[in-house]
Amino acid sequence: MAYENILVETRGNVGLITLNRPKAMNALCAALIDELSDALDGFEKDAGIRCIVLTGSEKAFAAGADIKEMKSKDFMDVYGEDFITHDWERVTWTRKPVIAAVAGYALGGGCEMAMMCDFIIAAENAKFGQPEITIGTIPGSGGTQRLTRFVGKSKAMEMCLTGRMMDAAEAERSGLVSRVVPVEDLLEDAMKTAEKIAGLSLPSVMMAKEAVNRAYETTLAEGVKFERRLFHSSFATQDQKEGMAAFAEKRPANWKHR
Ligand code: CAA
Predict the structure, then answer these.
(1) Closest ligand 1 atom to Cα of 131
(2) Sheet holding 105-107, edge to edge
(3) Model's pTM, two decimal places?
(4) CATH 1.10.12.10 residue ranges in the chain?
(5) Atom of ligand 1 minimally distant from the CA of 64
(6) pLDDT recorded at residue 85
(7) Most buried residue, 17, 25, 169, 228, by most Cβ within 10 Å?
(8) Which residue among the candidates 109, 129, 140, 243 is catalytic per the annotation?
């Protein structure tokens, strides 16, 4: 597939996807979503890739769904095709870790897409928001649900009801982002973090991701049980034997990713 709205590259064991619609603040049009799904499929299938970074430009991670593309749709258009479709959630079912590196605006569907990633590293100029209320609608790709889980009801409600943006410092204080870094360091920092993850055992990384995500979908007791079963499963991997042997022998582990 030829990409017109994203840039895709491989750096070592890390796959990098850059949203690239500079004239539209990286607004998420249908073609971009198709391309993103295709790129994620490719990285999932590529055994050499063990972590993925999703980023935008210094001005915008993404300013939301493409308003111009959807403005004339009517109820049956959106209900009929179940807009925003399944593909918008493609990031959430990526089994390898996906880091969002966010600079500038992450609004509406852009904020929602960042929250679908496994964690967010933000540049100091990042601004997060769900401004859909200001254009006569509401978030449609999980914003009311994920933002509420990440920052709590009061802030999520205020943001969804007023469209107020949250800056990077507030986003870090509220637990929406894992870290804030200077704009010029964002990509390097995200890539280093991704390389660190890609340098670990892939099955352990995938199991840890699955277990943390389960915390959002189930009760504490069920989540703890799920975690324990995955922990047990890790003892069936070659990497558990290698990792613990390497620790005991005071040498670096030679991961097989199996
Ligand atoms: N869709 C389509 N085009 C967009 C866009 C969007 N979401 N956001 C920005 N653009 C376009 C602008 O129309 C403009 O295009 P033209 O040059 O052709 O006029 C270009 O990008 C640059 O934008 P601005 O001139 O507005 O730049 P700014 O610096 O003055 O403002 C901004 C930046 C605050 C991000 C502003 O563009 C803005 O408010 N954008 C819309 C944000 C929004 O409402 N997002 C929610 C969308 S709905 C949604 O996402 C639903 C969902 O839940 C999935």
Answers:
(1) 44
(2) 60-62, 105-107, 127-129, 166-167
(3) 0.97
(4) 201-249
(5) 50
(6) 74
(7) 17
(8) 109
ipTM, 2 dp:
0.98
Place of tokens 């959106």: 78
CATH superfamily for 201-249 is Lyase 2-enoyl-coa Hydratase, Chain  A, domain 2 (1.10.12.10)
CATH code given to domain 6-198: 3.90.226.10
Quick one: DSSP state of residue 184? G
132 is catalytic: yes
In 3D, which of 10, 115, 114 has the Cα closest to residue 61? 114
pLDDT digits (tens, 9 = 90+) for 186-242: 999 999 999 999 999 999 999 999 999 999 999 999 999 999 999 999 999 999 999
Distance 73 CA to ligand 1 centre (A): 18
Who lines ligand 1 at CB under 6 A?
24-25, 27, 63-68, 84, 105, 107-109, 112, 131-132, 135, 139-141, 143
Q: Where in the sequence of the chain do the CATH 3.90.226.10 domains occur?
A: 6-198
The pLDDT, as a whole number, for residue 62 is 98
- H/E element, 1: none
Give the nearest ligand 1 atom to 65 CA: 50
